[in-house]
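Thread: quick sanity check before group meeting

JM: Hey all, I'm pulling together slides for Thursday and realized we never actually wrote out the predicted structure for the chain we discussed last week. Dropping the sequence here so it's in one place. If anyone has concerns about the input, flag it before I start.
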Amino acid sequence: MDDRTALAERFEEDRSHLTAVAYRMLGSASEADDAVQESWLRASRADVSDVRNLSGWLTTVVGRVCLNMLRSRRTRREEPLDTYDRAQGSAEGRDPEQEALLADSVGLALLVVLDRLAPAERLAFVLHDMFAVPFAEIGPLLDRSPDTARQLASRARRRVKGRTASADADLSRRRLVVDAFLSASRGGDFDALVALLHPDVVLHADRSVIPTPEPVVVRGAHTVAEGAMAATGRALFTGVALVDGKPALAMAPMGRLRLVLGFTIVDGLITEIDVVADPDRVGVLDIGILDD
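JM (edit): ok, ran it. Output follows.
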């Protein structure tokens, strides 16, 4: 078997692994597919006669392609949310529900935090902490020393954990309420939503959520629940995250944070919801993952 045939066979055997690496690097299934295809084009033109570990080498090729994509990515956070609503089903014919399930399987909150890392930090963390690539191999991808790559991964690890959750004894119960709100929103269960809301609940939404001259204020359980029902499509790309130390919901199509719902919960009922989409406000929120 010649080197080219061996490489092609190894690539197909490792395709699912390489796609998993790319997805965690990019947060978008369509972009991950593009990265894997570009990686094959590069690998097929390379001299692999001296490569002893084709799987490891292919992983680094994908890592480098994703690093370049991250560095060149221009995230336009000022775009209105309806732009992303329309885009959900437009990525190469992908089913939005399948894309959402993939995000759930990885952890949407994790994708959000990874998106906030510098490209070098993201590469070091993903390759080392998720796929056990040695820092001796990561360093050259970044044109850095292995020790510097180790420091980048350590810095990323701290950011992934986010601000320590409060020692509030009700934290787990608050998370259950937030989980239930998301589940009811995704399932379009109006009665379940109303049951989670205090009759006099108040929702505040900034002007980036709905293009109005003034921030929106909505009052009453039924009215707030009707608004949540209208946002079922967005709920597909929403997950529970630790936001400023408290359970909240983060909406992140393609792994990029666009909107956060913060909750005030009293005696098991939601009394207030703060919907934040203004890029300046979203950008200063401390986002982390909640332990299962």
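AS: nice. Residues 75-80, 86-93 have pLDDT under 50 and may be disordered. The longest strand covers residues 197-205.
JM: adding both to the slides.
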